[in-house]
Design goal:
The complex is a heterotrimer. Chain B has seven helices and ten strands. Chain B is α/β, with parallel strands linked by helices. Chain B is globular and about 50 Å long. Chain C has one domain. Helices cover 83% and strands 0% of the residues of chain C. The chains are: A mainly alpha, B alpha/beta, C mainly alpha. The interface between B and C is medium-sized, with 35 and 29 residues.
């Protein structure tokens, strides 16, 4: 049943993305100031929002794991970090492609770009940590700590980079006031949301099956532990 | 939560105790009960899980499966209280290489809240046959001296001590050290402290301990 | 039988701090090596970025904090190598010692070492880069204290994690550097203001950011460290 839902979700996401592509590339009008270049915003913005949503999910799951020690939280944290990294990297690349014709450079120390880049490196560190720790319980605890510490830093990074840049430069951002543009952006946001949920869900299942494999009960015990809990059976 | 253990609670209760490192089960399904104040000889070939078992009971590591109770206290829930009442003598000395024996002991004594830490440390070091006056850092100690210093550190714990876990305590000790260790074990037992002694020196162990547990590949086996 | 009074959080932290500083003192050669490493870093920056004295003076704040940051990797790594040698950290855990006291003691010790290092680097900067202390020693001292504390808190937390596994030398900077950027920015900016003057009174904003960072990360460190070192 769950598999059917997942497949349906994937089909929905693909369909929505296809429609969203049409909306973004031809139905929505070109931007008054930037022209057709602005259309990339319809994928750049949802991508970054998904990345941020995934990071927030990772934060919640990290706290959840430290409080409840349930493997579902750990697997979901792993899934959301990876998917978040993916969307973040894509979003950053798209933003860079937009910046080239608009500002003339591939990169600029715009506070949002800079913060995104810092976050990407921070979560790359999170994933590297997960890769380097073999013991599942240690890995889960340390990853959760790292996820919490990184996420709490986000407002600090954002504010400090803003303050650092505002002394030098004023940023411009694309405005979407035209109702057709707003609709296109909203549509694509939901399309990306569907895709993101599908990815996270699938990755979560992979992570859970890895946990099951790693945590199988010792062969001689007559009954395996029920569910996947991190603590042992109590006397 | 009542923190004073019942006087009748066994020293150790193990139920389905298992510990996994990566894919390897170091211990699988160990059941055992040791009465209060009793003495247990733990034997088994290398890699049979003796050290893992001692570390689990000492709460240095936590079980993958199963449960441990020491003097009625749960090893996961009541960990801090349990640590006050358990002493572990392990392969690692837990000493700081760059401090002297006295400095190591004084630090431990102060962290335990022992009044007059310096004199307690000095008298314990003398008792185990170490010259604290020399002021040599642990880095310059021989293996036997390190063992003696570790023993002195363990002896800071009584009288709260209920259980002493000794992992190959005779290793690296010269004959006078071995005699010292045997005297201390007898003394601890006389004071009602339960002992678990893991050693390859089976004859020595059998003379000191009443019970015996033999491990083979992480499981209880007959010797 | 003497009654025992186990130390409270702060007293325990102080005992751990004292122990760490005592160890560093007994192995002074390591501290010297750290100092010369930081000095070498400063020198390298001067050469890599050219002899333009105006440029050096302008960016002096950046060089100083980069040197401190690189040195911190060594100091933080060392802090837990000492604990790993004979499983001493396990020994502390099993005494038992309150893990929060261990965190406070070690993090304060690391901060103290970094602060001492920075004090030695300042006269070198005055000499090498020709900077002057437009805003005085007090402001500079405050920035150094806040900056070293800011590096030490998350650094100690991450070092406890990183020092356990493989790739410990890579993992610590990878985890720490992105995190520390707000504190680094604030410290560099504030230091530059001290060197060059503060016509627009921006110093307090940067100090506030440093203060906020410290509060957040010392709080997180105290809250999360116990879970990090348990097995």
């Amino acid at each position: 049943m769950a598999q059917r839902t997942r497949q349906g979700l994937f089909a929905l996401a693909v369909a929505m993305l296809a429609i969203g592509a049409w909306l973004g590339l031809s139905w929505a009008p070109p931007d008054r100031e930037m022209g057709d270049v602005q259309r990339i915003m319809y994928v750049h913005v949802p991508s970054m929002w998904m990345a941020l949503l995934a990071m927030t999910l990772n934060f919640a799951c990290s706290i959840g794991y430290l409080l409840k020690k349930s493997w579902a939280f750990d697997s979901l944290a792993e899934a959301s970090a990876e998917v978040g990294m993916l969307f973040g990297a894509v979003g950053l690349a798209l933003g860079s492609i937009w910046a080239r014709p608009t500002w003339g450079v591939w990169w600029t120390w715009d506070p949002r770009l800079t913060t995104a880049a810092i976050l990407l490196v921070a979560y790359a560190g999170y994933l590297a940590l997960r890769r380097f720790v073999e013991d599942p319980e240690r890995r889960a605890v340390w990853a959760a700590v790292t996820g919490i510490v990184a996420f709490v830093d986000v407002p600090l990074i954002w504010y400090s980079v803003q303050w650092w840049r505002s002394i030098h430069q004023i940023q411009s951002s694309p405005k979407t006031v035209d109702p057709q543009m707003v609709l296109t952006l909203r549509w694509n946001t939901f399309a990306f949301l569907a895709l993101g949920i599908f990815f996270i869900w699938s990755r979560y299942r992979v992570a859970q099956s890895e946990r099951r494999h790693e945590l199988a009960a010792p062969p001689t015990l007559p009954s395996a532990p029920q569910g996947l809990t991190a603590s042992g059976v109590r006397l | 939560m009542d923190e004073t253990p019942a006087a009748s609670a066994p020293a150790i209760e193990l139920r389905a105790l298992s510990k996994r490192f990566g894919r390897h089960w170091a211990l699988a399904g160990v059941d055992y009960t040791l009465a209060r104040g009793d003495s247990l000889l733990l034997t088994g070939p290398n890699g049979s899980g003796k050290t893992t078992l001692l570390r689990l009971i000492a709460t240095a590591i936590s079980p993958s499966f199963g449960a441990i109770r020491v003097a009625g206290l749960d090893a996961v829930r009541d960990r801090e209280e349990l640590r006050r009442r358990t002493g572990l003598l392990s392969h690692s000395s837990f000493l700081y290489e760059d401090l002297t024996g006295e400095q190591n002991l004084v630090l431990a004594a102060r962290l335990l809240g022992i009044p007059d830490a310096q004199n307690s440390a000095r008298s314990l070091l003398e008792r185990v046959g170490l010259d604290w006056r020399s002021g040599r850092p642990v880095r310059q100690f021989s293996a036997g001296m390190r063992k003696r210093a570790a023993i002195a550190k363990l002896l800071l714990k009584p009288p709260a001590l209920v259980l002493a876990l000794l992992d190959e305590p005779f290793g690296e000790l010269d004959p006078s050290g071995i005699a010292l260790m045997e005297r201390l074990i007898a003394e601890l037992l006389a004071n009602g402290v339960a002992i678990v002694l893991a050693t390859h020196m089976v004859d020595q162990g059998r003379a000191l301990c009443r019970q015996r547990l033999h491990l083979q590949e992480g499981r209880v086996a007959s010797p | 039988m003497n009654a025992r009074h186990p130390p409270g959080l702060l007293e325990g932290a102080f005992l751990i701090l004292r122990k760490d500083l005592l160890i560093e003192w007994h192995t002074r050669a390591r501290l010297n090596a750290l100092l010369f490493f930081a000095l070498a870093t400063l020198l390298i920056f001067s050469f890599a970025l050219g002899p333009d004295t105006k440029l050096l003076e302008q960016n002096a704040g950046g060089y100083l904090w980069l040197a401190i940051l690189f040195a911190s990797l060594m100091a933080l790594g060392e802090s837990f190598r000492v604990e790993r040698e004979n499983a001493s950290l396990d020994g502390l855990r099993l005494l038992p010692v309150n893990p929060r006291a261990v965190f406070l003691g070690k993090a304060l010790g690391n901060a103290a070492i970094l602060f001492g290092l920075s004090l030695v680097l300042i006269p070198v900067m005055v000499g090498l880069f020709g900077v002057s202390l437009a805003l005085g020693l007090g402001s500079l001292g405050l920035i150094l204290v806040l900056g070293c504390l800011a590096i030490s808190a998350p650094g100690t937390l991450y070092s406890a994690i990183a020092s356990n596994g493989q790739a410990r030398d890579v993992l610590l900077p990878l985890l720490l550097f992105p995190l520390i950027i707000p504190a680094l920015l604030a410290a560099v900016k504030a230091t530059s203001l001290v060197f060059q003057g503060d016509p627009m009174s921006q110093l307090n904003s940067w100090l506030l950011l440093l203060g906020g960072f410290n509060l957040t990360y010392w709080g997180l460190g105290v809250a999360l460290f116990p879970q990090v070192i348990e097995e």
